[in-house]
UniProtKB/TrEMBL annotation:
One of its GO terms (molecular function) is ubiquitin binding. Signal peptide: none annotated. This is Ubiquitin-like domain-containing protein. PROSITE patterns: UBIQUITIN_2. GO terms for biological process: proteasome-mediated ubiquitin-dependent protein catabolic process. It comes from the Eukaryota. Residues 109-133, 149-159 have a biased composition (Basic and acidic residues). It comes from Arabidopsis lyrata subsp. lyrata. GO terms for cellular component: cytosol; nucleoplasm.
Length: 159
């Protein structure tokens, strides 16, 4: 059967599913289409008089058991990512295997940065403090030299 899912932006997704398809299976199909995790999707089903949000505990129900049939029209909304994170934490922080989004560590993102770190000499806290003081002194000397050069330039022009 064909069902039509209208996204809040006004875009439509037409999905071909069987009557035995579960809400979760439909959400997975939609998630792949909209490139968003299943945990963020909110489906609203029914006509004007019976319209309601499909609850998460209904994900294992078949569409036909919820009154979804051929040419049914439903709406898709998205949970805010922060709300999804809070819900996952309150449930024990378990990751959802159906979530197509993966976290990537900073090491994986920037292998070049790690090589540079390996090349830098390791210094302890005292050496680091001294290095920062030396940099400040060098910076102060540079500013003084620049000011002297400008003053000399002005003096040379005035003569």
């Amino acid at each position: 059967m064909k069902v039509s899912v209208e996204i809040i932006t006004g875009t439509f997704i037409d999905a071909d599913v069987s009557e035995d398809t579960t809400v979760k299976e439909l959400k997975e199909k939609i998630a792949a289409e909209v490139k968003s995790p299943v945990t963020r999707l909110i489906l609203v089903i029914g006509d004007e008089e019976t319209r309601r949000m499909v609850m998460e505990d209904e994900d294992d129900m078949m569409l036909r058991d919820l009154g979804v049939g051929e040419d049914s029209h439903m709406y898709l909304f998205f949970k805010h990512p922060d709300l999804v994170s809070e819900e996952e934490e309150s449930k024990g922080g378990g990751e959802d295997d159906d979530d197509p989004m993966e976290e990537v560590s900073s090491e994986a993102e920037s292998p070049r940065g790690n090589e540079e770190e390996d090349e830098k000499p390791k210094i302890d806290g005292e050496e680091k403090d001294q290095a920062m003081k030396d940099e400040e002194e060098d910076s102060d000397e540079k500013v003084e030299e620049d000011e002297e050069a400008k003053q000399n330039e002005k003096d040379g022009e005035a003569k």
